[in-house]
Amino acid sequence: MGRYVARRLIQFIPVILGTLFLLHMLSTLTIQIVGDPVRALFGPNAPPQAVIEELQARYNLNDPCLDQTGNPCVGLFVDRIRQYATGDFGVNFRGRSVMEMFLERFPVTARLTVIALAFEIVIGISAGVMAGLKKDKLVDNLVRVTTVVLIAFPVFVFGSLALLLVGLKVGLPLRNSDWAPEWLGQMLNVGYDPDYPWLSLVLPGFVLGAFSLAAIARLTRTSLTENLRSDYVRTARAKGLTTTRIVGVHTLRNSLIPVITYIGIDIGFLLGGSLVTEGIFNIPGVGQLVFLAIQANDAPVIIGVVTILTVVFLISNLVVDILYAALDPRIRYD
């Protein structure tokens, strides 16, 4: 176990450096092809050249390599890595720290992600297990139909329908009534309420995790169905083990390996994909920060936030790889 974890940690270093270099190349090529974001910030009302040069120097945009299309700007990349290593991800065009702006909004997005993951894990795995144990029965058919519907709807369509039908048609009367408990109305809120930082994110969290919930349910069902036909399951039944022990102790652990893989990858997608959900429900999270930065053409914020989310995504995948060894002791590196 220790050697496995050590090797994964060693392999993590070139992976994260390579990923950050690809992000660096994309941002560098964008500047080389599209043009200087400082000049684009002012449009036709450009300030004096001295002001532009001062801003370019402040945001490390005065390197000569940025004028040469295709130049990888390795020196600039090394400087960025040194800067990132100190926790400094730059400042926006108004002088605010990108990390400070990210940390202000990240707790909201983190709560939204946790709620979405909770829906995925609890409902998705439970539905998948019930469908796998009752293959081709009513429960199985109901799970398959429901998951297909959830997968078929894009997030912005499903979110708009949930906002209109659940948040306004159901949640609004509950919040205005005298008989309904306050927490129930807040669970079906149409926006973020700082007085209820968790309850007001329940409906957006379900919308954000709906697609992944359906995918996890189908993945769990398929994996469990295949493992129930394995030789070790027939041997366990021949020894007289109960179905609960066979499924709960043996079969489910093997069936959860692909599910854990999907969840690990999905954490990064939830953090990045919250942009649409946060826009629909007007949630002041990281997604809204990126959206506003795109509108304002604030390149340092876009590059900094995307870099931070990439690091979080890679770390979550590293944790998933380490969890493999806990789920299945046979998974080791030679």
From TrEMBL:
It is found in: Cell membrane. Keywords: Cell membrane, Membrane, Transmembrane, Transmembrane helix, Transport. Signal peptide: none annotated. CDD domains: TM_PBP2 (cd06261). Residues 106-324 form the ABC transmembrane type-1 domain. The chain crosses the membrane at residues 12-34, 108-133, 145-168, 196-219, 259-281, 301-327. It is a multi-pass membrane protein. Belongs to the binding-protein-dependent transport system permease family. This is ABC transporter permease. It comes from Nocardioides bigeumensis.
